[in-house]
Amino acid sequence: MESPVQTEEVYAIPASYRKMENLHILFWLVKDISWCMIWKTLGILMVFPTLGIALIIAWRTRALQSELAHNLAIVFWISANSYWMMSEFFGFDTRPVGHLTDFKHLAIIPFSIGLLILLYYYLVQKPRETQVATL
């Protein structure tokens, strides 16, 4: 029996990259479990490999605009998440900043940067890519 002709583009990554991504998930889960359980030292230590691997993944995927956008969004997500965790660990999360917000709410800045990167990709970059592909 013949296999159907593949018309969709295939995205493949090297096994070593996949292993790094899987390790990244493990570090991220340990960081968030540490936050949940208030294991301050482990939670803070896990920020470094979690964020470090996210940066490496973003760097390695920089040639593919879609992958880069999503991986940068993850970098900013982890940054926001880690800041929020540390604000709670060190007890400054509920201290007011000005009249409108608390320190933990400053995590909205990196969260928003990640969201803006994705919005730019989906509203500007991806339509350009689609337009070029159809020409």
Taking all Cα atoms into account, the compactness measure Rg is 19 Å
pLDDT < 50 runs, ≥5 residues? none
Count of spatially separate domains: 1
Number of helices: 4
Strand content: under 5%
Secondary-structure map:
Elements: H1 15-37, H2 40-60, H3 65-89, E1 96-97, E2 101-102, H4 108-134
Antiparallel strand pairs: 1-2
Description:
The protein is mainly alpha-helical and 135 residues long. The chain has one domain (15-134). Helix content is 71%, strand content 3%. The protein is built from 4 helices and 2 strands, in the order αααββα. A two-stranded antiparallel sheet has the order 1-2. β1 and β2 form a beta hairpin. The protein is flat and about 55 Å long. 21% of the residues are buried. The mean pLDDT is 92.
Briefly characterize the structure.
By secondary structure, this protein is mainly alpha-helical. It has helices at residues 15-37, 40-60, 65-89, 108-134; strands spanning 96-97, 101-102.
Features:
135 residues; mainly alpha; 2 strands; flat
